[in-house]
Amino acid sequence: MKTPDEAGAAAAAEYFVQLYDYSFASGNLEPWNALAGETCDFCRDIAADVAEIGQSGNRTLNEPTSIVTSRVWMIEPAKWFGADLIVREAPSTQVDATGATVATDDGGEFRLALALSWADGWTVDEVDVLDPDETPQW
């Protein structure tokens, strides 16, 4: 994740998926916001959801999201990259401070189409969430 190449972009995309789970489980948005770009609507929406859950005193329990397939490519050398991931999100349970279930989600498989950029570190600039069999509109 320390280099502006395909391997670094792949590591950044994997870290982004890990942060998704971590943010919901912990309520800590600092790492998420450090990676999320100002233009990333998906990133802002997730941050708002995590903040809302945290403000209610709830937290989310789930197994980690797994990456089923991953493809990364360079768009502009050492600057712009694309990533196409199929991920499997485990079922999750939102619980309140007493441990009582307040919401559940079935999880599922999704395609994440990411635009990433490098400027002394990685930024996720945009994310499209699609059905696994949909083709991203690059």
Q: How many strands in all?
A: 7
Gross geometry? globular
| DSSP helical segment count | 3
Task: State the helical fraction.
Answer: 25-40%
Order of helices and strands: HHHEEEEEEE
Strand content: 35-45%
Describe the structure.
Helices cover 30% and strands 39% of the residues. It has 138 residues and is of the alpha+beta class. It has a 4-stranded antiparallel β-sheet. Strands 1-4-5 form a 3-stranded antiparallel β-sheet. A hairpin with a 3-residue loop joins strand 2 and strand 3. Helix 1 packs parallel to helix 3. The longest helix is centred in the first third of the chain and has 21 residues, at 6-26.
Question: Quick recap of the structure?
Answer:
With about 140 residues, this protein is α+β, with helices and mostly antiparallel strands. It has helices at about 5-25, 30-35, 40-55; strands at about 60, 65-75, 80-90, 90-95, 100-105, 110-120, 120-130.
Which structural traits does this protein have?
four-stranded antiparallel beta sheet; 138 residues; three-stranded antiparallel beta sheet; alpha+beta
